[in-house]
From TrEMBL:
PANTHER family the record matches: STAGE 0 SPORULATION PROTEIN A HOMOLOG, TRANSCRIPTIONAL REGULATOR-RELATED
Domain HTH LytTR-type intervals: 162-264
Database matches in InterPro entries: CheY-like_superfamily, LytR-like, LytTR_DNA-bd_dom, Sig_transdc_resp-reg_receiver
Alphabetized UniProt keyword annotations: Phosphoprotein, Two-component regulatory system
Pfam families per UniProt: LytTR (PF04397), Response_reg (PF00072)
Entry's Gene Ontology molecular function annotations: DNA binding; phosphorelay response regulator activity
Species this protein is from: Marinomonas gallaica
The name this protein goes by in its record: Transcriptional regulatory protein YpdB
Domain Response regulatory span(s) in chain numbering: 15-130
Lineage: Bacteria, Pseudomonadati, Pseudomonadota, Gammaproteobacteria, Oceanospirillales
Length: 264
């Protein structure tokens, strides 16, 4: 595996790894890194913490961009195991939490990126990594410091069930079964494989209550579950449209939210 770290000219190559269980998010960050970080030769993507640990033992990784909340072991726990196994590269956490929830990261001087990732913020992060300034980004966190971060990332309450009406009946719907939410007049439609239901919550209220790792607001009147996106299309005018799996409905993406998909 030693040859994996050399370019054709014989010099050491720079390899960066993206760790995220959502394929769409992995691809998005991979494309951004390839475009913004000129010195990077390869951007590897994996879907779990265990894959990241295994890959880091085989290939010399310069920096790892890692999601915090993943099935199996979390990003924090993965980081702890990476450090214990001798990984000395740079770590950047990717999180969907707001400024207040990520205060712990700033306190520990560990860099982080908020989802959805913006090009400007990622470029700033890359410049920090390139400068290797220990006063700006602290990479060598030990296990105790990483453990202190973990409880603060697990206390974010998100909506798991929702009461929705159809006709004269009230249905209790698991949020993970929802394809998308669409605002219509005084109500919001809840779209699932079993059909459409209505709730009185606004899109704005839902944004505050849904897990931003799982649901993206693509328009002022629409929220979609990321894993339910079949593809994203772009028309001749540069407008983006999301196609939902197993549905005939196509949802427009607002100009402000097009950054979610413009690198794809």
């Amino acid at each position: 595996m030693a040859n994996a770290n050399l370019t054709n000219s014989g010099h050491s190559s720079m390899c960066v790894m993206v760790v995220d269980d959502e394929p769409l998010l992995r691809f998005h960050l991979q494309r951004l890194l390839q475009e913004l970080w000129e010195n990077v030769d390869q951007v590897i993507t994996v879907g779990s913490g265990l894959e990241a640990i295994s890959m880091a033992q085989e290939i010399n990784i310069h920096a790892i961009f890692m999601d915090i909340k993943m099935p199996g072991i979390s990003g924090i726990e993965t980081a702890k195991q990476l450090r214990k196994s001798g990984f000395s590269g740079h770590l950047v956490f990717v999180t969907a939490y707001d400024e207040h929830a990520v205060a712990a990261f700033e306190h520990e001087a560990l860099d982080y990126l908020l989802k959805p990732i913006e090009e400007k913020r990622l470029h700033e992060c890359i410049k920090r990594l390139q400068s290797r300034s220990q006063t700006t980004v602290k990479y060598e966190l030990d296990s105790d410091q990483l453990t202190r971060l973990l409880p603060r990332t697990e206390n974010v309450n998100t909506l798991s069930w929702i009461n929705a009406s159809r006709g004269d009946s009230i249905h209790v719907i698991k949020v993970s079964d929802v394809f998308c939410f669409i605002a219509e007049d005084k109500y919001t439609s809840v779209i699932t494989a079993d059909g459409e239901f209505l709730i009185r919550k606004t899109i704005k209220q839902l944004v505050d209550e849904l897990n931003p790792d799982v649901f993206w607001r693509i328009h002022r009147s629409a929220i979609v579950q990321v894993s339910c996106i079949e593809c994203v299309k772009k028309d001749d005018q540069g407008h983006y449209f999301v196609v939902i799996k197993d549905l005939e409905r196509v949802l427009p993406v607002s100009r402000n939210n097009a950054q979610l998909f413009k690198q794809m």
